[in-house]
Amino acid sequence: MQIKPFVFRTLSLLVFLFSSSVSFAQDQTFEDWLMELRADARSQGISDETLDAAFATVEAPIPRVLELDRSQPEFEQTFTGYMRNRMSQARIERGQALLEEHRELFQRIQNEYGVQPHYLVSFWALESNFGDFTGGFSVINALATLAYDPRRNDMFRSELITALRIIEEGHISAEQMSGSWAGAMGQCQFMPTTFYRYAKDGDGDGRIDIWNSVPDVFASAANFLSQSGWRGDERWGREVILPEGFDFTLTGTGVRKTVTEWNSLGITRVNKSPLGNADLEGSIVLPAGSNGPAFLAYNNFRTTMVWNRSTYYAISVGHLADRFVGGGPIMYMPENEERPMSRELVTELQTLLNAQGVDAGEPDGILGSRTRAAVRAYQEQANLPTDGYPSFELLEQLREL
Q1: How far apart (Å, rounded) are the C-alpha atoms in residues 131 and 371?
Q2: For the whole model, what pTM was predicted?
Q3: Using an 8 Å Cβ cutoff, are 26 and 153 in contact?
Q4: Are 228 and 221 in contact (CB under 8 A)?
Q5: Which of 32, 170, 294, 364 is deepest in the core (most CB within 10 A)?
Q6: In the chain, how many domains are there?
């Protein structure tokens, strides 16, 4: 009998939830764990009043949080699709209007932290759609679920204790502390430990409210970026054109050269004018492989990846910021959108790479640095552009061998 896809997914989810509850039962009940956590928090200075308020509605792990934490997306997002979903004329125009509306605030923030306003608005847009969507989960409930789960309990236990400390200090009430399923909070989507290290009181009212206070949101975001290495006198990067016969082994954030050096290798701006000469260091980044756009990414691109480790995210922040101040669209997007690679297809790719004598590791369907290095090794072996990009076209070629 053939199982229909919907039925299969439903059964898989039930098996997942059952196996999750079994793994919890191996250690201690949620009630016993919560009592132990309360005692730990109390020993760290959290009052019974805060604990009672925070855990008033916490009764059991939240199945939806577990599902989101366990699940892998069916498809890897393509660069083309990722950018299309985050760039729109309406978003650009709204960002421009907000830059004007908060001009004085942004100038004060820039003077204090050295972060240019159009970048702050770009982070704001991409993290919460300018504060419209900050997440619908109780941060305490979500973090309690993840801290009880043995998979990454130490990390989320630390986040939960810190969230309790934020409530204890009066920055936000337990019932108002909402966020994502993973505990990211407010209009800039800070985890509690990030909040505790970097969040700032931007409006001078004595507390830090990244949920409702725009000055607090921007002061906090700017402080985090500044402390992470942001340079206020530099741009994030730019789209460039690579010369014919370019050596693709020079791509990736592991290779850094000055603008002068890249210029000497024949790399130009998109209008085909020379890059010029400067000591500013950058890396060539190819988010869609050799058939897509190329970017010369500078220090602020790397700092953006401290915020979020995704290359796609870092490019989207920089490009959207450029659009807010009159920059044009990306010029060399792929003519045809890339075909996304599901986890199953990535596993097949890894298996076929191993069969060709290049080490992709144990096939697991995850596109990590080892898989990309194996792709590049095979490309070199097959006399292909060594961009390290795991495309569906490459998979089809490997299938034919």
Answers
A1: 37
A2: 0.88
A3: no
A4: no
A5: 294
A6: 2
